[in-house]
Amino acid sequence: MEIEVKLRLLTAAAHLRLTTILAPFHLKTLHQRNLFFDTPRNDLSTRRAVLRLRFFQNGVTAASATDPPRCVVSLKAKPTLVNGISRVEEDEEEIDHGLAKECVDSPSKLSSLESRVLKRVREEFGLNDFLGFVCLGGFDNVRSVYEWRGVKLEVDETKYEFGNCYEIECETGEPERVKTMIEDLLRENDVEFSDSNMTKFAVFRSGKLP
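Request: output the structure for the sequence above.
Response:
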């Protein structure tokens, strides 16, 4: 179970203000390409599950500029997002970057890819005898990561085809306490925010900004 605080930054100016404030605590910046897959019959979506390939491109900091490209496959299921606190069942695994790129070009190759996560998808969703996967599309995300007051903050600029969204996230086992800490930081620095009420995938599927 992944538990995260998720707060939406209401404007690009709020995002810039927050990243400026957090600059002394900056660890790295990640450039992510997120692509989503389902069956032609939407077997995963109808059961509140999401299959994602996340490609990590070279970052812009000294710590990440030399990192090789990576890809992680993840299965998320039964998400809830209430009062800015997200809970979702998640399983993820790093897979070969080159093979993952081939699956983007030919999604049917996901059916035979050697992967613990994809094996779970096939078995738990009864997909052993089906026509394969299709790519639903996706979006880019620039994630700035900070170590602040004992927690890791992730500040996102998500770039959809229909516009950009901004969000601050923090994975934690104490979501109520950490949410209060982050809210205090934002209010003290006049950073406009609200509770997130949609996941990034839900925003992508809706085709419009929240």
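Residues 175-188 form the longest helix (14 residues).
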